[in-house]
Predict the 3D structure of the following.
Amino acid sequence: MGQNGTGPKGPRCIALVGPFQSGKTTLLEAILARTGAIQRQGTVEAGTTVGDAGKEARSHKMSVEVTVATTSFMGDSYTFIDCPGSIEFIHDMRAALPAVDAAVVVCEADEKKVPQLQLILRELEGLNIPHFLFLNKIDKADKRVRETLKLLQPASRLPLLLRQIPIWNGELIAGFVDLALERAFVYKEASPSEVIELKGQDLDREKEARFTMLETLADHDDELMEQLLEDIQPPRDKVFDDLAKELRERQVVPVLLGVATRQNGILRLMKALRHEAPGVAETAARLGVKAGNDALALVLKTFHTAHGGKMSIGRVLAGQVGDGTTFHTPHGDAGRVSGVFKVMGQHFEKRAPATAGETVAFGKLDGAKTGDTVSAGKQAVPALVEVKPYAPVLAHAVQAKERKDDVKLGAAFTKLTEEDPSLSVVHNAENHEVVIWGQGEMHLRVAAERLSDRYAVPVSTRAPTVGYKETIRKPVTVRGRHKKQSGGHGQFGDTMLEIKPLPRGSGFKFEDRITGGVVPRNYIPAVEEGVVDGLKHGPLGFPVVDLSVALIDGSYHTVDSSDMAFHIAGRVGMQEGLPQCQPVLLEPIHEVEIVCPSEATAKMNAILSSRRGQILGFDAREGWPGWDVVKAQMAEAEIGDLIIEVRSATAGVGSFTFKFDHMAELTGRMADQIIAARRAAE
Ligand SMILES: Nc1nc2c(ncn2[C@@H]2O[C@H](COP(=O)(O)OP(=O)(O)OP(=O)(O)O)[C@@H](O)[C@H]2O)c(=O)[nH]1
Ligand SMILES: [Mg+2]
């Protein structure tokens, strides 16, 4: 039985989330070591952690995908989902969150990371996921915890509830007082903290902080409020019950302290999770799962492992999943489970069937994707959640280093985007470029590394081609003629074309103004095709748009004329006519909406101006106090690597969306350079 009367609630699934580099992977390591799942605590520096075991994470010393690890504590199983902190990899966290019972938000006393914290708390608040704050790295604390909380509070919509206060030894934090337990602990490295007795000033501070905690709890508990007003000490069990209730009802965010590298505060965190975090029944209810016996699971991540084939990590929300369970997804069949595995980072260990609450890997299940709802009943259960990836912000053109790998590359793209739906691949039919879109520079770099390492297709990347086009400014009437006399059958086609500019955005129009059958009707489609052919590559090197071409005259030969001859005649007419029409370059202009913390808004304006941006205005971001939206029109060429500047000016949290608006003429030196570069490339 727990200290608040609630007992173990079976297997739990807990997400470790938080700003970039706050210590999530280290915390997972500390938890695994503390609960005996691993012998020794590894470090991120030495590359010995259970998390970040993939080649890309190790080499960049940061998490680039979720790590899942299961341990047990006081007889219950706990699966932790260590999520990457970088906003570029946030989709992995967003896809995993719906299935968890609670989240531990690992953060630091760092003002610069407050917007990131806010971003993550927003996700949790939106999904109604109970969460704790774990204030990590307090070995480096340079301010009072209460000041830190003041700093962090604006990031959270819910009140932060400090439930531990530090015991200072000079400039260092030596331990903590648990305000609910009313007990003081002195940290011991890698072993349980030692209980001590509080005296003097420390005791006074404890009383005051405890009172503040109770006051916050009393905001949602009238009985407790009365007790406080009448100066009655509430029973300890009542305080624990309130803590659990208000966490689960998402009225407060309890704050715990610790040092992940030294395993300080780990046991208290585990006990808080054990006693206060909801179990799978509540989570299933939150997701709207209907009670039933058929197996149902949420796939939080799929991996294509080097040896074991595909693995789908799933939280079982109902029923039992064993070898041979056949799953369906709302969009078709997911396949048969071939092996159920306990997950420890990149290590998978075959195990017995999994029951509701457990988080395991399902072998094979080829049809499952990250985020899928999979069910084993006769009829597929509709998707419990749909996590749409954020719009991509950066693109690279990708090419297999060796031609022979082209087919393999296509298959690798499929696996890559299945594992990480925040990556997308677009084939540009116009120039045959294959472009991969993602959430930032590191995201795309890791994607390219994965193609090379995980899928054995070495690739090269470069900036994608900007969608330049060209148009004309002057009308012209031109003759397009094709005549060939070679031996027997000749070729003859003769056309007179009137080429005229059209307003921006009109595209292309073809008009047949032939009278008297000077060009027989059946050849006219061939002329049009030839003209269209001639538009593919204008005199400046780009597709030609916004013009009309009328076939006004021509002649034919009863024997030598053919579709082919008229097709060529039409194309020749365009090739001769267009250069006389004062061709001009067109560049795509997009409407861009940047979101950023307000203190970065001035910087955004400067960035936009330096990139030929036309600022349309800025506004407060709706529903996001302390954030702005800046709107601008910008040339596609300038948007290319815009995200890199936006991120660096906003401590990683700024982002943008964009939408094509119009094509605009570009003249002068810049245009000359683009045209020259195009010629050089051809
Ligand atoms: N001093 C101190 N350093 C810590 C503590 N916890 C983690 N670190 C260090 O902080 C750095 C980042 O730790 P990680 O565990 O990789 O952080 P993370 O949150 O997983 O990082 P991402 O997943 O990339 O966002 C490493 O250098 C850790 O050694 C701590 O409690 N105290
Ligand atoms: Mg990490």
User: Anything to note?
Assistant: The first strand starts at residue 12 and ends at 17. The chain has a mean pLDDT of 93. The pocket of guanosine-5'-triphosphate (ligand 1) is lined by residues 18, 20-26, 43-45, 62-63, 84-86, 106, 136-137, 139-140, 259-261 (CB under 6 Å).
